[in-house]
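Journal club side-thread
Mid-discussion, someone asked how the predicted structure for our own chain would compare to the paper's figures. Pasting it here so we can look after the session.
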Amino acid sequence: MRLAALLFSIAVVAAILAGATAGAGVRQTLPGDPTDPTRLPIGDGRVALSVPAQGYVFVCQMGPGGGGAMVEGPWIKSDGTFDLTAKAIVDGAVTWPGVVRISKHGGLLGIAGNGLPTAQTTGVFPVQPSDDAFQYDPNPNSISPQTIQYSLDAKPEKAPAPSCLSGGPIGIARNGVAIFNALDAENRDAVAHEVLDSCAGHPQQSGVYHYHSSSPCLDRGSKKKHSKLFGYIFDGFPIFGPRGKDGKLLTDADLDACHGHTHRVKLNGKTVRIYHYHATLEYPYTVGCYAGTALTGTGAP
C-alpha cells in the first residue's frame, strides 16, 4: 500500500472513532471545497451515534457492513477529497413505468406509488462486466417495483429534540424515487465511493432504486433562484435542492445539524414560511437527522 493511501486510511479510522461520539454542534473542518464538485470533502467517519452534529449523519445504529463499492476509484484523492465530475457512471438509459401520487387527506400528506422513477431513465442494473463502472462497483442488484404507501404529517412541526435515522428510505423524491441517507453498506460516504447512474441513483439488495443525494435529473435551481422541491422526508418536512435564497449554493455551515433551516419558500403553489431541508453538494447531502417526528408507512422507518 502506498504511504499516502495508508495515511488516508488511518485518518478515516480516526474520523470514525470521533464521529461515533460526536456532540451537538460539533463541526470539524475538512479539506476541500463543499461547493466545488471537483474537490468535495469525503464524509467517511462522520457518523454520530449519541446526539446529532452539524455535518454528520445521526443514525440509530451502524449498519452491519457488506456490499458497496469494492475498489477505490481514481476520483478519490489522497487529500481527503473526491472529484464528483470524474466518477465512473453506470451505463444505460432504461425507462420505467413509474407511478407516484401525492395528495392531502385532512392533516396527512399521502404519497403512493411503485417506487420506480417517473420521467427519468436509469442505468442498466445489475452492472454489466462490459461497463467501466463494473471494475469499481459491480452492483449485482436489479431494480424492481415496490409497494409505496406513506402517510406523512401535512403540517409538520419540529420535535423537542431531533431523532436518529434508520437505514433504508428516509424520504421520497417528487418523482417517486426513494431517498436514503448518506451512508453506503460499509457506513462510508456513499456519494464518494459508490458508482451510480447518470441520475445519481442505484438499487439495493431488495431492488429499491434510490438516491443518496440530489439528482441532476431533477431541477436543482439556478444561480439566481432558490432550488425547487426535491421531495419529502418522513417527518413531513420538504427537502429542496442545493440552492437557497438568491441561488446561493448552501453548505453545512448554512444549515443546522439535521441539514435544514426556516424561511419562506414556494411549496405547492403557495409561499409559506416553513422549516425545510436542502440536498447539497456537501456531506451529509440530504438529511443529518429528523427535525420532526417521522410517521410510519410501507417502507418507512
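Post-session note: The radius of gyration is 18 Å.
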